[in-house]
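Continuing from the previous page of notes. For each protein in this section, the sequence appears first, followed by its structure tokens. Read the first protein now.
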Amino acid sequence: MTKADVLKAICLPAVLQLVVACATLPPPQDLTSGKLPAGPGASFVMAKAGPDLSPQSIAAIGECLGRAGMAPGGTPAYFVQLAHTLRAGKTQVLIPDPATPVTAAKLAPRRKGTLESLTLTVSDIQAQEIFRASVTQFVRDKPDAAGMASLTDHLCRVLATQK
């Protein structure tokens, strides 16, 4: 075995692992505050969402709220709002650290690309915020329907844990 063969055998796998590690994006991060209302009297009306939220995502979130114990229609006791935001990936955001309380959140690492977020807020009839859930993910290129579906699915999983 030549010196070049040894270098290829050692260096090539290490370089490939480094490239793969840099190429993967972290999973979506979520942050919640408050308690999601549930049970009798937890009826809601959904605010009109912006044009960047698909009707499928809005309907899916409504279904997830239903499974979590809220009910659409009737005389609404709660007002639900959805917001979709995009910001430069070099912007740092606070994300929860699972080992510590939310008050000791840490800064997400800076990355090139875009931070895409989907935020749900539930307010009572006095416009006091009762519950908030936000899911943020990194996107390398332009946000697309697959990214929105990923955010919607992750938000639904977060809502399912609020029972």
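Done with the first. The second protein uses the same format. Note its length before scrolling.
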Amino acid sequence: MFNDPGKKVKIVANVFFWLVAAGGVLTAVFLAINMEAWEYVLIAPGAVLVAWLFGLFIYAFGEAVESLTALKNRSGSAIAPAGTDSHAVVMAQGAALRQEIAEEAARYEQMYRDGVITKSEYKKITGRLRDLM
């Protein structure tokens, strides 16, 4: 039930749009026929516009939730688990990232020593890696 909430919110937005738009059009036609005043047909475009605007906001929220979920999944966890020292978690993640960058720098250094990359390429790459640290 709680897996992939962004996708579910987007589905709800789509269903909401079609239900409100169809309901608005049917109501406009019903009023126009029963009241014998065809001006009520003008309610239909307004209902579709309102349904579209509200559906758009709901869909955008679902898109934001999806993007946040993807970001969280890509970075491990955006929020420290309850009961943990968030500073310690951030420091541990930072140390792990620095270790990965150091290993990457060592691989490029070996590539430079082996003649796979030039000195200018090596300096450019290691400069970017230093910027990450």
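What the second structure shows: Residues 5-75 form one domain. The chain has two domains: 5-75, 86-132. We return to this in next week's lecture.
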